Amino acid sequence: MAVPRSNNLPVIYAASDIHYPHYFDLFKKSLNNISEEPCLFLLAGDIIDKGKIDGAKPVFESIFNKFPNSKIVATFGNDEWNELWDKLKEEYSNIDWIVDDYKIYSCNNISISVIGTPGALDKPTRWQIKNIPNIQEIYNNRITKIRELLIKAKKISQKTILLSHYALSKLTLKGENPYSYGELYSSKMEKIIVETRPDVAIHGHAHRGTAYALLQNIPIYNVAIPLVKSITKIIFIKNLEGFL
Asked: What is the pTM of this model?
């Protein structure tokens, strides 16, 4: 499915799964090819690889050097290990880390809520089951909270963006092994998107999935660098009454 054309709404870019240093060259090349400075630069997790937090520095510096006036907003992926979250927040305090919460930004006088979350899975991985005994409870609680945040954010901002690391729809998993879907996304989170209808949903994690799909006319972006090979421009689509 083709990605919609640009419009006059604020410029927003997104990426994920840079797994520094593995896909950093692809990321940097794409960054250098962008000419318009975004209001928001969204990172949907797995900025670093296997908990090596020093890898975040060159990624953030490359963005700030190119776009000094842009706000970087990030959530954590599975390679930003839970026990490192506080350290990452401390060392990179100039980044807006959003974890199961939301923040509101003003871009071109339009208020945009970004609801950030690491996401959830239908089927926790073997490692998660072994090392995080209450992982299913964590996911269930997270799903409930994200639903509440989306409802709240839609009431107080003009646009809402759901930013997750784990995939948000089976539509953007096409290309992955169907037997692995449960370990890549949450069908409950997909249901919440249909119910609450954010303007845009963004995720990563699925390296062999599909870059873009419409879920009941809601744009779903998979911004994983290994898949799309570039940074993704986020577009709010139009309907008959104006912009969604």
From this structure: 0.94
